Amino acid sequence: MGKKCFQCIYLFRNQCRLKIKSRTWKKQRYFRLQEDCMTIWYKSKKAGNTHSTFSVGDVEAVREGHQSEVLLSIADEFPPDRCFTLVFRGRRGNLDLVAESAGEAQSWIKGIRKLIDNLENMGQREKLDQWICDWFKKADKNRDGQMNFKEVQDLLKMMNVDMNEHHALRLFTTADKSQSGTLEDDEFVLFYKMLTQREDVLRVFQEYSGDGQKLTLQDLKDFLREEQLREDGVQQYALKLIERYEPSDTARMLQVMTFDGFLMYLTSPEGSIFNPTMVELYQDMTQPLCHYFISSSHNTYLLEDQIRGHSSVEGYIRALKRGCRCVEVDCWDGPNEEPIVYHGHTFTSKIFFKDVVTVLGNYAFKASQYPVILSIENHCSVEQQKVMAQHLTQILGDKLLKTPLHGKFPIGLPSPEDLKGKILLKGKKIGGLEDSMNGVVDDSLMGEVSDEEETAEFNDDHHRNDSIRHRVKKSKQSLSKELSDCVVYCKSVHFSSFKHSQIHSKFYEISSFTESKARKHIREAGAEFVLHNARQLSRVYPSGLRTDSSNFNPQDMWNAGCQIVALNFQTAGVEMDLNDGLFCQNGHCGYVLKPAFMRNIDERFDPENPQNGGYKPLSLSIQVISGQQLPKVNIKEGSIIDPLVRVEIHGVPLDQAKQETRYIDNNGFNPVWYDTLQFTIHVPELALVRFVVEDYDKTSKNDFVGQFTLPFTCIQPGYRHIHLLSKDGTSIPPSSLFVHVRITKLT
């Protein structure tokens, strides 16, 4: 890695800059890039010898100029060319910095971007080398570039390995080729390789290898056909794998694969459980909007809870960069005729509506070109609604859709493809789309619409309490024509009944349901709900009583075909794992095509009774073979995890299931199970499979270690690796599971 970083030499110097947290909190910090080109060291000017570090791998992006609320607040003090922001992965806060000069700022911005780029373009082998290097540095306590046996023993505990002293000493002595009593670079790599020998993969390799040393082209083809169930173009695919993953030039020339190449293939994206062809955009994007599940956020402006949490434009940036395609704003009258965004009647902080719109304009189409829906909960006076409309129009320009496409009255909702690069407003509208197009709505008209959505949020909750209830009252709200005109395909309307909707509803109307109301409809009229969602959009949002920003299970709503299932993106947990799992396919574009039986109004699918539709179930068999380098969850010294794996099926009620392996005592480094779990899947098109690793504890709740969630339809059969994610959805290489998967039809 270090050889690639000649452009970053400037960053090795000890440099002082300001760390900013607010207008009043500004502290000097020294920052320096370490020699590994992977670690940034920093310390306070006053803190003496105490210092800290963070990895370049923790940094997701670098923003130039005043691109955070903190730096915007001090824009009058420091010019934008000296300011930059480090954005960290997961839920860690940003680091806002001011350099001493514009040149210094550019050196850091370009240098760190180059380092991030290098890291992202690393191959599997380079990543592993980097990981080994990181462990070496952690264990080399006296920083002499060598490791004695005591340091190696400490390292084993850090790496989740419980090994008796005799065995550890034998490995150490074998690796110590120089017989110096310490391990240096190459000797440590040898020690690591002995430690991480993959007996489980070797077993599979030798089963197909004629001589136990290599796979001939025919051996590899047999493996691909019999285990990986590859059917088409097997010879060309086998040759491609040898060319891509075989490290030996001689083996490549002879068109054979060594064990190292075989292991490289199995740990690559092509050896992943997730079918790589489905990671890319692969679905038909020309269907009406209502035929897609749409990645959606609730109270997007909040970074924490709903009572005292911090409101920030950062919430919108994070959601949009994750591929979210429907974001929400709660708008209220603000000072100096400027509308503000916050969770009304609470102590959450406030941000300006115009700042949210600016961020939307800047970030809406960075992760996906497909349309973004801005869901407005409007509590503003008519005067400030006009200001809102003005900001939307002036800041977003042509990105804001204000008239039907092609200027013609549509007969149905347009497709995501039709709406590429467009922002749609969801909100109340005076009259219908027909009235707007025919010029029936008078320019001077100020409409009055019922303000039922906020009321519904509380009244639909069966267990509401008085402190919330006393704020809610049915009301009529005045609506400005200017804001009304910004709503085209997503007119918010009150839902009466499925029968009423079937007769009276227009395709461009959308109703919102609290989670409890949606569940009630699913229980009582699931098939009608599915049909309703084949014709128009529905939005489901969390109960007003979830003041901790917790989430409901989105799977229940997807089972009924609800498209906009709004979750609190700021809250990690199984619900967001499912959301990430569903939308990690199809190019992470935020739109996933619903199954055909949910789009066809002539079919009758009931999620509560799917067997009535004549669907043929499948059998899913997963053999959990082993785990690799699982992260520690307990920082207590000497603590080593006792891992178990749970496989969960999330889908229609008939498919909901979970099973666990045994737990393995004191081995988070290379646990081996060979446990087989069996499931029956009745509606595979709606099923998600979640793999969870936990640290078993017989006296209290198990600790979360890692997880991976994917759609059932994206699973590749055969021997596969599952690359685990942390609680907040970021990767934790090289932590993985090795499994064998079989999917068969039930007769």
Overview of this protein structure:
The two termini are 54 Å apart. The chain has 747 residues and is an alpha+beta fold. Strands 13-12-11-14-15-18-19-20-21-10-22 form an eleven-stranded mixed sheet. It is built from 24 helices and 30 strands. Strand 11 (326-332) and strand 12 (340-341) form a beta hairpin. Helix 8 packs across helix 9 (234-245).
Quick description:
This protein has 747 residues and is an alpha+beta fold. The longest helix is centred in the last third of the chain and has 21 residues, at 515-535.
Entry keywords:
alpha+beta; eleven-stranded mixed sheet; 30% helix
Give the DSSP E fraction (strand runs of 2 or more residues): 15-25%
Instruction: Let me know the largest β-sheet.
Output: 11 strands, mixed
* Cα-based radius of gyration, to the nearest Å: 28 Å
End-to-end C-alpha gap: 54 Å
Helix content: 25-40%
Identify the overall geometry.
globular
Biggest sheet strand order reads 13-12-11-14-15-18-19-20-21-10-22
Count of individual beta strands: 30
Poorly predicted parts: 1-7, 454-460, 462-474
What is the helix tally? 24
Average of pLDDT: 87
